[in-house]
Specification:
Blueprint: H1 2-20, E1 38-59, E2 64-83, E3 89-106, E4 109-126, E5 132-145, E6 153-166, E7 170-185, E8 188-206, E9 209-226, E10 233-252, E11 258-271, E12 275-287, E13 292-305, E14 308-323, E15 327-340, E16 343-360, E17 363-380, E18 384-394, E19 399-401, E20 413-416, E21 429-434, E22 437-442, E23 452-461, E24 466-481, E25 486-502, E26 510-520, E27 526-537, E28 543-557, E29 560-573, E30 587-600, E31 605-618, E32 622-635, E33 638-651, E34 654-668
Antiparallel strand pairs: 1-2, 1-34, 2-3, 3-4, 4-5, 5-6, 6-7, 7-8, 8-9, 9-10, 10-11, 11-12, 12-13, 13-14, 14-15, 15-16, 16-17, 17-24, 18-23, 19-22, 20-23, 21-22, 24-25, 25-26, 26-27, 27-28, 28-29, 29-30, 30-31, 31-32, 32-33, 33-34
Length: 669
């Protein structure tokens, strides 16, 4: 019995060995390797060195003579990889390590500073291909700024955020972010912390109906410490902001030819700046056929701030009709009411617009005629109307006219576009009044950046009890001749306000003007134009102006392009003595020129040159010239960028010169 069991056992082991032994010609199947936990898919980076020199000299009310030499050097490293699988956790890391050194001289006093440059940006996408995914990110940067290069400013920025995303017919995201910012300089130190929560939901269930809801809550705390002499001044700003926005874009009808679009926004701010705001706007467009549409628009807003309340409600109804593909007729009726703490107004009006175009035997002709009439009743107790957050853009040293007449200059308040930083008259900007109009001009060398949009608050003259008609006529013509490279154009405009009843507020304007001009294009890319314009105004100086302008654009080859333009205007004011314009200030002559040249000299070398010039004589006496350029050389992983610029300006009794030259060398690895 034992012998039989031993024989069977031996046969069983032999069978297993035979089965385990691969047959001739049959390949074995290798087992799949175990997934790697940490995958490094890309390693790259860049070594860089940057040196910049700045010079700034100003004379006048605030005299400054300062120079700065800045040296930056460091390395950027970029890593990308995944944990197990890219769809499980896909991560990227960017690191910067380096140093910054500054040497500067202020009015003969030399100093220096040194700082460590640190930067990181680490992010990871979790389950990015799944309906529910997440993304985490941490960023930070320590650097020095050139915003006020006469004083070294070290900046420390850090932020951490996590975002949860949902895909599907109803998609959405939820983000939590924490930010810190620390600016340290010799004269001031700014610290800021902020917590931001953002929720966004989008309804995509039907392609012709788009609805999106966004909610943001931000809690920020900022502290400014000023250190003049041995005295420390501290200013603290807190802001809690809750912002809810709902937008809709719906199409409906047999062919989705109708559309309803709009937005609802609710805003609440408290802390250093308090505000409660509601804004509702909806527009309905209905198509009644290939050539006829109608539209209906309603708007409501409520804005409350300490000591100020503004309520607005308005509506509009209109239609558009196309006739023979050459005439578009637009007619609309509108009305609105605005109520403030110390008074209000309501208005109704009608508007007719005729847009005509036609190919004639002598050329293509276009004409537009606009007729409008508005009836308005005003009643403000103090005969003053508060205007808040009028947005204007200050470019160069050009003057911007505020929207209302007869403004109290003492009430003007200029802030940044976030309504947080208040600018100072005489240092950052200047106010100029001519007749009933008020102009604001940026002062070169101030805190307002060139091209920055600012908000202006002020009080303007209004009526205590008056009914006013405003009539508007605008008629323009243009014909492009077919036989000659010539275009003729003209424009007439009349806007007149007249008192119907009540007390004359004294700010009713009459504005009448006409313009004729000629454009000539003798060769491709060249435009020559000349025009004459005359304006007659009741409350501000009228004028006559002659203008000529020329522009030229040419591509010498696919690698080289040139754009140049020049303008000249000679303007003479009417009745200057009545508006306080003294001899020598009763005219305004302006000349300006711009040029830009771009050329790729070789496959590795790119050259850019820019220049501009502007000068005013007469009522405005200022001048600004700018010239700059850059040279970019790229070969394999090496990149060299050389740029330089100079700016000279004169504004009334102040003069200044700014110059800059910089060199940056980097190499990728």
């Amino acid at each position: 019995m034992r012998r039989r069991c031993g024989v069977w056992a031996a046969l069983a082991w032999a069978g297993l060995l035979v089965v385990a032994q691969p047959a001739d010609g049959i390949p074995t199947q290798e087992p799949e390797p175990a997934p790697r936990m940490f995958n490094l898919e890309e390693v790259s980076g860049k070594v860089f060195t940057e040196i910049r020199y700045h010079s700034d000299q100003r004379s006048g009310r605030i005299g400054v003579d300062q120079d700065l030499l800045l040296l930056r050097e460091g390395v950027d490293v970029h890593l990308r990889g995944s944990i197990y699988d890219p769809n499980l956790l896909d991560w990227t890391t960017r690191l910067r390590i380096g140093g910054a050194h500054q040497w500067w001289d202020i009015n003969g006093e030399g100093r220096e500073s040194h700082a460590v440059l640190l930067g990181y940006d680490v992010s990871g996408a979790i389950l990015k291909e799944r309906p529910l995914s997440a993304r985490v990110r941490a960023r930070g940067r320590r650097d020095v700024t050139e915003r006020s290069f006469a004083r070294t400013i070290e900046i420390d920025n850090h932020s951490q955020d996590i975002t949860l995303s949902l895909r599907g017919p109803v998609s959405g995201s939820l983000m939590f972010e924490h930010r810190t910012r620390d600016e340290r300089g010799e004269l001031r130190q700014d610290e800021e912390q902020a917590l931001l929560t953002r929720l966004r939901l989008v309804d995509n269930r039907k392609p012709h109906r788009h609805t999106a809801l966004t909610f943001e809550y931000e809690d920020s705390d900022r502290t400014n410490r000023f250190r003049p002499a041995d005295v420390t001044q501290v200013q603290r700003f807190t802001d809690q902001r809750a912002d809810l926005t709902l937008t809709n874009r719906w199409s409906f009808g047999d062919d989705n030819q109708h559309r309803l679009t709009g937005r609802v926004r609710l805003l609440h701010r408290q802390g250093s700046f308090e505000q409660d705001s509601v804004h509702v706007s909806q527009r309905l467009d209905l198509s009644h056929g290939p050539t006829l549409t109608s539209f209906y628009h309603g708007q409501f807003s409520y804005d409350r701030r300490p000591g100020w309340l503004d309520r607005f409600a308005g509506g509009e109804i209109g239609m558009r009709k196309s006739v023979y593909e050459s005439l578009d007729i637009t007619a609309r009726l509108s009305g609105h009411q605005r109520q403030q703490d110390d008074g209000g107004l309501w208005a109704v009006g009608g508007h007719l617009d005729l847009d005509y175009r036609k190919q004639t035997p002598i050329g293509y002709y276009r004409s537009n005629l606009t007729l409008a009439r508005e009836y308005r009743e005003e009643d403000f107790e103090a005969a003053l109307r508060a205007i808040r957050d009028e947005a204007i853009t200050l470019t160069g040293i050009s003057r911007v006219v505020l929207a209302h007449l007869d403004i109290d200059p003492a009430s003007i308040r200029v802030t940044d576009r976030f309504n947080q930083v208040r600018y100072i008259e005489g240092i950052d900007y200047m106010v100029v009044q001519v007749g009933a109009s008020t102009e604001i001009v940026r002062l070169a060398g101030g805190s307002i950046e060139d091209g920055e949009t600012v908000l202006v608050d002020y009080s303007a003259l209004a009526a205590r009890d008056a009914a006013i008609f405003t009539d508007t006529i605008s008629w323009s013509h243009r014909i492009d001749l077919e036989a000659l490279p010539v275009a003729l154009y003209g424009h007439y405009r009349l806007r007149e306000q007249s008192l119907v009843s009540g007390t004359d507020p004294g700010n009713l304007q009459r504005d009448e003007g006409w313009l004729v001009g000629l454009e000539l294009t003798p060769i491709e890319g060249l435009l020559l134009a000349g025009e004459y314009e005359s304006r007659r105004l009741r409350l501000t100086p009228g004028w006559d102006a002659w203008r000529v302008r020329a522009s030229y654009q040419h591509s010498f080859d696919p690698r080289t392009n040139l754009i140049v333009s020049a303008d000249y205007q000679s303007l003479q004011y009417h009745d200057p003595a009545r508006f306080g314009l003294l001899p020598g200030r009763d005219f305004l002559d302006t000349v300006s020129a711009n040029a830009r040249f771009t050329s790729r000299l070789t496959d590795q070398l790119l050259l850019r040159l820019d220049g501009s010039y502007r000068q005013n004589w007469g009522r405005q006496r200022d001048e600004m010239i700018r010239f700059g350029g850059s040279l970019l050389w790229q070969v394999r992983q090496m990149e060299v960028n050389l740029d330089a610029g100079i700016e000279q300006w004169r504004q009334e009794n102040t003069r200044g010169t700014r110059a800059m030259v910089g060199l940056r060398v980097s190499r990728e690895f």
